[in-house]
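Re: prephenic acid structure - here you go.
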Amino acid sequence: MSDSKPTLETLRDTIDQLDRQIQELINKRASCAQQVADVKQAGMEEGEKAVFYRPEREAQVLRRVMERNSGPLNNESMARLFREIMSACLALEEPMSIAYLGPEGTFTQAAAQKHFGHAVRTLPMATIDEVFREVESGSAHYGVVPVENSTEGVVNTTLDSFTHANVTICGEVELRIHHHLLVGANTKENSISRIYSHQQSFAQCRQWLDAHYPAADRIPVSSNSDAAKRMQSEWNAAAIAGEVAAEIYGLKKVASNIEDNPHNSTRFLIVGREHVPSSGQDKTSIIVSMKNKPGALYELLAPFHEAGIMLTRVETRPSRDGTWAYLFFIDFEGHENTESVKNVLKHVEELAVYVKRLGSYPKAVL
Ligand SMILES: O=C(O)C(=O)C[C@]1(C(=O)O)C=C[C@@H](O)C=C1
């Protein structure tokens, strides 16, 4: 080894000095956030409540972090660190409570933490409708619900809830879904004959299970967390669940990433009560009902094409009240405050029987 190479000791001294500076800077930033809270509070009228969480600003901060990043840490790792710093800063302004589709350890909880960071309180709800109700009533600041999976398709309960709920979409988050085969301390790994999981996870791991555990009973339960909880009392059982459930229940991974499709991902929506200003890179979601006639969908989508607006999702659901034939759930690029989106929405409102604006929100950054 050449003499010019730094020693372990000098490198650690440098790290100690840098840590001190980073810590000081983070606290300076946190104190700025506290002052931001005071400014927000001071701008309120009598009886009005200040809104501390600003999704458009957070998206801008994270995008800038990624743009200016020069490594060696990759963009995502760097953005995740800043995600947590902002989460802690926001908690100083106001501690946030986030309702999600539970129980504890579900992918929806992981999505909530990916979006808001770990300085929020996550509240597990038994159903998707309950998540919406918690937000509507003000019992939770925001809610997180799954909306579509790349393997299994849309989550119809979520779409149906949007038709009657009085909430605004204020964000989206995408999560790569990795499934693991998990066992407990008492499991005899060579004798696994029963496997617990949610029906969707069995569907996403079908080929792997056929190849590795063709004879094991597949027992569907209400969630992967429930699977992780139940198998612990059985010596011949395993569960399929994600990382968070494995951590919460202290389970061991026998096999990792057993999903058949390596790009398996789920998209979640963040719902709240306030409209979100433009972040510069946004999406808008609407529900539209059209008269049941030939070419209705064509007629509806033509204005988007003419305005050069990118559609990112179109779902069709039968109307459940019997008065309208179709409900279309449409996501497209752009914010409802921009001229081109305003014009398209005006055009759509003239054509449709009914239009519900669900909100404009920043495109997922992480
Ligand atoms: O800029 C603000 O409005 C802040 O409150 C500061 C801050 C941040 O830490 O950067 C914190 C919370 C908001 O959600 C957005 C950003």
